[in-house]
Amino acid sequence: MYSIKLDTGKILHIAENYGWYIDGNLAGDEDNSIYSSKLVRELDWYSYLRNYNIYVSANCNGKCLYCYQDAQEKRTIENLSFDDIKNYINYIESINDARTLPKSIELFGGEPLLRKDIHKILDYILDRGYSVKIATNGTLPIIQSKAMLKYIKNSNIHFRISLDGHTQELHEKYRTKNTFYKIIDNIKYLVGNGAEISLKTIVTNHNFKYLKDILHYFKYDLGVKLWNYNALYVLDSTIKNNIESTITHYTLVEELTKDEYKEYWDMFIQTPLAQMLKSIYVKK
Ligand SMILES: C[S@@+](CC[C@H](N)C(=O)[O-])C[C@H]1O[C@@H](n2cnc3c(N)ncnc32)[C@H](O)[C@@H]1O
Fold it and tell me: Could you give the C-alpha distances from 271 to 4, 43, 201, 277, in angstroms and in order?
């Protein structure tokens, strides 16, 4: 048992292979505290440490008003070279053993599909036995290129596409103009070719009231089986662009657990809500 005093004066107790909880008791007596605690969160070190994201592209073709990344026109982060990526993966392997090695690596940015050597990067990661998640805006023609087809058909590659609504107006409110139909076309192509795909929606006041329609469209019109969401992070970009939202993770948990969303719950397994449900362990 590790006990750490927090700034608030309370104590965080971490019981190895069991979970964590916070109370005011420095002793953190396992028998009396952790097992009688009403709410203990499971802490799976191995799953936390097994998530690796590689920022493969500092460039982006998007102009999302809420984007928390460097201003699109003048990004200050440099692109990683192919060798940098290779060295990083070798480094991950050198500091882990079989138990802690990542199972999956996420390619992130910027826009990962802008990389000219994306096929080489995917080959390298797949050859080393990992699955790959590509976080993409889903707008680029490369998705329907001949060279991409073998990756689309590979079940170890997952495409995570950002889509904020079921109409052009909703999606493009804060994201890039004139992209909605390109994305829909690419999603239909991906689904039609059996790709592993999920859609991710940033939920703000503008699309919150349409959540059920959005999920209906994703599931039944597009045939997508997995959905993820995030609430808006309020940062420089959102303040500068006067984007405000009162929707928080709590609002979303309250909304999405209503019975009327039942038919979509099977799409939620990658959401923060599902992560939270998985990690809460309630005595008795
Ligand atoms: C920065 S993008 C990079 C990957 C890819 N270019 C894309 O558009 O999905 C990753 C995700 O961050 C989300 N995002 C950007 N700014 C955000 C903000 N202020 N709050 C919450 N999510 C944000 C985007 O909607 C997107 O789903």
Answer: 29, 18, 10, 10
